[in-house]
Automatic annotation (TrEMBL):
Keyword ATP-binding: no
Membrane topology: Multi-pass membrane protein
Record lineage: Bacteria, Bacillati, Bacillota, Bacilli, Bacillales
This protein's record includes keyword DNA-binding: no
Protein name: ABC transmembrane type-1 domain-containing protein
Annotated PROSITE patterns: ABC_TM1
Family as reported in the entry's similarity comment: Belongs to the binding-protein-dependent transport system permease family.
Length: 280
């Protein structure tokens, strides 16, 4: 009976590893195919059967990108935009999450529900009034006009509230209050060190979402010097004949910062997921 149990256990593990391997390959394949197309001429994009082996035109295609747009200037604009947005969102979301998780005040539940309700409203509905507000404030064609819309993040507030309520013991907060610590000092000295894994998770989510956002950036930015990388790459598609090798070469290099960000913070990201699974 024990041998049968061992066999069943082994087969289940083999099936699990096989499934995870296939899922990983399916997840990585679009990025690999993008790299392959970035190393090939434009005609390879529509070839049948599809081309699956890299070519030798990666540098040549990237040179075409550099001749068409200010790639590095646009990359810098995106890095500045996403970094500032991520830092501000982490600060505001963690403060709000701390307040919602550990403090009692009138209208707390109603306000939290109102914040959650904003998550189901399509962002396209507010595009025109938001544009008019930014225009009247004189922030068109500026990174400030783009980033200010992303500072309040309902998902970030929700995630921080849940994480702080489960991970920060009330006894620590009460002990800090007895020692005479202010609320902000409690946040800085007690809460922040505990929620670093959640910071990494939310930071990756916010940075990636801001980097990939296109509609609002395209609406606000018209000056090529202020283009983010998404808007700059979109300008490569404004011709009747699209050079897919050139376009996908730009997309490939524009994806590298996201991979670097994930590799830098993946340990904290995994720690946050693991801690949540253990507690559940």
């Amino acid at each position: 009976m024990k041998q049968v149990g061992v066999k069943r256990f082994s087969f289940s593990r083999i099936f699990m590893y096989l499934f995870l391997t296939l899922a990983s390959l399916f997840s990585i394949f679009p990025f690999y195919w993008m790299f392959v197309m970035a190393t090939r001429p434009s005609a390879a994009y529509n070839s049948i059967p599809p081309t699956l082996t890299p070519g030798n035109m990666l540098v040549e295609n990237f040179k075409k990108v550099l001749n068409q747009i200010d790639f590095f200037g646009s990359m810098w604009n995106s890095v500045v935009l996403c970094t500032i947005v991520t830092v501000v969102v982490l600060f505001i979301s963690s403060l709000a999450g701390f307040a919602f998780a550990k403090f009692k005040f009138p209208g707390k539940n109603a306000l939290f529900i109102a914040i959650l309700v904003t998550m189901i409203i399509p962002p396209q509905l507010g595009l025109i009034p938001q544009y008019l507000i930014i225009a009247k404030a004189g922030l068109l064609d500026t990174l400030q006009g783009v980033m200010i819309l992303f500072f309040l993040n309902p998902l970030g507030i929700f995630l921080m509230r849940q994480y702080i309520s489960e991970s920060v013991p009330d006894e620590l907060i009460e002990a800090a209050k007895i020692d005479g610590a202010t609320n902000f000092k409690i946040y800085r000295k007690v809460v922040l060190p505990i929620i670093l894994p959640a910071f990494a998770t939310l930071g990756i989510i916010v940075f990636t979402a801001t980097w990939g956002e296109f509609l609002w950036q395209f609406t606000v930015l018209r000056d090529p010097e202020m283009y983010t990388i998404q808007v700059a790459l979109a300008s490569l598609n404004n011709t009747f004949k699209v050079d897919f090798g050139m376009l996908l070469s730009g997309v490939f290099w524009a994806t590298i910062p996201l991979v670097i960000i994930f590799l830098l913070f993946n340990k904290l990201f995994i720690a946050s997921i693991t801690e949540g699974s253990v507690k559940s």
